[in-house]
Design goal:
The chain contains 19 helices and 27 strands. With about 625 residues, it is an alpha/beta fold. The strands form five sheets. The protein has an eight-stranded antiparallel sheet, with helices on one face. Bound molecules: fructose -6-phosphate (F6R). It is found in: Cytoplasm.
Length: about 625
């Protein structure tokens, strides 16, 4: 939530910062702003409510020449404190206008800090928590023990803040440096030739360098064109972890597609293949990082999967496989509920935390709660070095590449694949599957990129169908067994992209209430189990369809190729390849992604940036 970028180097900072913001806009798009040090003693700031395009228009009006300078920073906001209007857009300045601050996170004690400043006669001009930091840093720099020392001033202020924050600060008297601080919210450093970057995500600077450095918790960094210096909040030099980004600019660009999401849907075979690559070595499943012993894995007697949104649905899919393969009980829980209900956790509990961003606040807090209770935590994450994997005992990275569209697509499929590998790793450690069985399951997984590619080759018909549904008031989704989480995911995609009422149900629940919703013409999407793999459920599902068809529903049926039994019950039939039962969600989800995207496009909505949402949710 909120994207921030800072730059010091040899280029015009405004260009670098605006380009960076464009690639971070997925993090928030309520307002955007920039600050550039235009000379000793001068700071040019512009900010505008709405999308980045509004800020760019404003910069053109003012004249970009007014922003000449080689040190600067920018922000794209997802509003927390105060509505998305110009005065609440970042950067915020202190009363002298000499300090500018951008912020991602929430400063929980901001009301007390604000009251203190107001009591001292400071006039605050915004509703934000961030502005208090600008005033505090301005004061710390102007007087007292940290006078004239910007990093020390920021460190002193950090000691006074509670909550989660990444802060980037510039001061007119320090035209060649940018200072930043990090607690819980993300910040990475980009190291180029004669230029240095800080940003919420490497996508902001990938055009210039793929050499990055991951900051730790409670660290302050000073960047200039020659490099960086990192300390803890007490000023002691701190350790950081350099890494090389394994994707390039083309991955962070649309590549001819109208929307990132459409490109990301197409990239799913590659995302799956990249996620599986290198994890089956010498007949064994291997994780990326393991700070727990094999004995710890053998000792696991219960599994929780904790996650939010689509990541949670990926956990629901995996539950069927992990229980089947390991005979361990698996509970899948929304991360936001997990730690508030006192779950029973101990050393033999494995908590699998699934998060694309690796920074979702609810999931991160669930991880912390689990570790406090001595449970082991295994992270499934798409972002190298993010906070959730850093705080976990083991990590399996999904290699979906950057996902810019706010609605998760390729990361979701990659999460399913990774969660299934976690299941196989447990089965192998516990001996509930023989090595040849693990190899067979992995080989079936390895065939899935081709199966997904096949689905993608047939979705034109789904697009047409999507356009025909654009005026519907609501759509229901039904599934059984692994088709149930697919139904939930299909409904979530439709809600978030098309702002259409959508609900996913376990088909067996229909007669316990939801069937009352069925009326003439209501579209109902049904995810059919395989007639061979789950014959009993298939038969039950056929009965469910005929029940709703009898009540006037328009049935849109996703069924395995060659499933003739269901054809008479389908007003619309979408065929998907026959794949092993537990893997069907990987092929069944794809048409539903395409369907939602097309309905949203037909309704005239921005598929990449649905209203009110942001890609990574760093507040609870
Ligand atoms: C839905 C979607 C969200 C995320 C959720 C978790 O399309 O993208 O529901 O899945 O916010 O995000 P991560 O995986 O970053 O923890």
């Amino acid at each position: 939530m909120c994207g921030i970028v800072g730059y010091v180097g040899h280029r015009q900072a405004l260009d670098v910062v605006v380009d960076g913001l464009r690639r971070l806009e997925y993090r928030g798009y309520d307002s955007a702003g920039v600050a550039v040090v235009t000379g000793p003693g001068t700071l040019a700031v512009e900010r505008k409510a709405g999308r980045l395009a509004n800020l760019e228009n404003r910069l053109d009006e003012v004249g970009r020449g007014e922003f000449a300078g080689t040190a600067g920073m920018g922000h794209t906001r997802w509003a927390t404190h105060g509505p998305p209007v110009d005065r609440n857009a970042h950067p915020h300045r202190d009363a002298t206008g000499r300090v500018a601050v951008v912020h991602n996170g929430i400063i929980e004690n901001f009301a007390a800090l604000r009251a203190e400043l107001e009591a001292d006669g400071v006039e605050l001009t915004s509703d934000t928590d961030t502005e208090t930091v600008a005033h505090l840093v301005g004061r710390a720099y102007a007087e007292g023990p940290t006078k004239g020392d910007l990093p020390a001033s920021l460190r002193a202020v950090c000691h006074r803040l509670s909550g989660a924050f990444t802060l980037v600060v510039t001061h007119v008297d320090e035209p060649d440096m940018i200072v930043a601080a990090r607690r819980s919210s993300p910040l990475v450093v980009g190291v180029g030739e004669g230029e240095t970057f800080v940003a919420s995500d490497v996508a902001a600077f990938i055009e210039y360098t793929r050499d990055a450095v991951e900051l730790g918790q409670d660290q302050v960094i000073t960047i200039d064109r020659d490099g960086y210096l990192v300390t803890d909040f007490d000023g002691e030099e701190a350790q950081t972890r350099p890494f090389h980004v394994d994707w390039d600019l083309s991955a962070a660009e649309k590549g001819g597609h109208e929307y990132f999401m459409l490109k990301e849907i197409e990239e799913q075979p590659t995302a799956l293949a990249d996620t599986l690559r290198g994890h089956f070595v010498d007949g064994r499943i291997v994780l990326d990082e393991q700070r727990m012993t094999d004995q710890d894995l053998r000792d696991v007697d219960k599994v929780f999967v904790v996650a939010c949104g689509s990541a949670y649905h990926s956990g629901l899919v995996a539950k069927y496989a992990i229980e089947h393969w390991t005979r361990l009980p698996v509970e899948v829980e929304l991360a936001s509920e997990f730690r508030y209900r006192d779950p029973v956790l101990d050393r033999a509990t494995l908590v699998v935390a699934v998060s694309q961003s690796g920074e979702t606040a609810d999931t991160l807090e669930a991880v912390r709660h689990a570790r406090d209770q001595k449970a082991r935590v295994l992270a499934v994450c798409n972002t190298n070095g993010a906070q959730i994997p850093r705080e976990s005992d083991a990590v399996l990275y999904t290699h979906a590449g950057p996902e810019i569209g706010v609605a998760s697509t390729k990361a979701f499929l990659a999460q399913i694949a990774a969660n299934l590998m976690v299941g196989l790793a447990l089965a192998q450690a516990r001996g509930t599957k023989y090595s040849d069985e693990v190899a067979r399951e992995f080989a079936e997984l390895a065939a899935m990129p081709a199966a997904v590619a096949k689905v993608l080759g047939t979705v034109e018909r789904v697009r047409e169908l999507g356009r025909s549904l654009a005026d519907s008031k609501a759509v229901l989704f039904l599934g059984r067994h692994v088709g149930y989480p697919v139904a939930l995911e299909g409904a979530l995609k439709l809600k978030e992209l098309a702002y259409m009422h959508a609900e996913g149900f376990a088909a067996g629940e229909l007669k316990h209430g939801p069937i009352a919703l069925i009326e003439e013409g209501l579209p109902v999407v049904i995810v059919m189990p395989s007639p061979k793999g789950r014959a009993v459920l298939h038969a039950k599902m056929v009965s469910n369809i005929s029940e709703i068809q009898a009540r006037g529903a328009r049935t849109i049926v996703l069924a395995e190729e060659g499933d003739e039994t269901v054809r008479p019950f389908a007003d619309e039939l979408i065929e998907i390849p026959a794949v092993p039962t537990l893997l069907q969600p990987l092929v069944a989800t794809v048409p539903l992604q395409v369907l939602s995207a097309e309905i949203a496009r037909a309704r005239g909505y921005d598929v990449d940036k649905p209203r009110n949402l942001a890609k990574s949710v760093t507040v609870e």
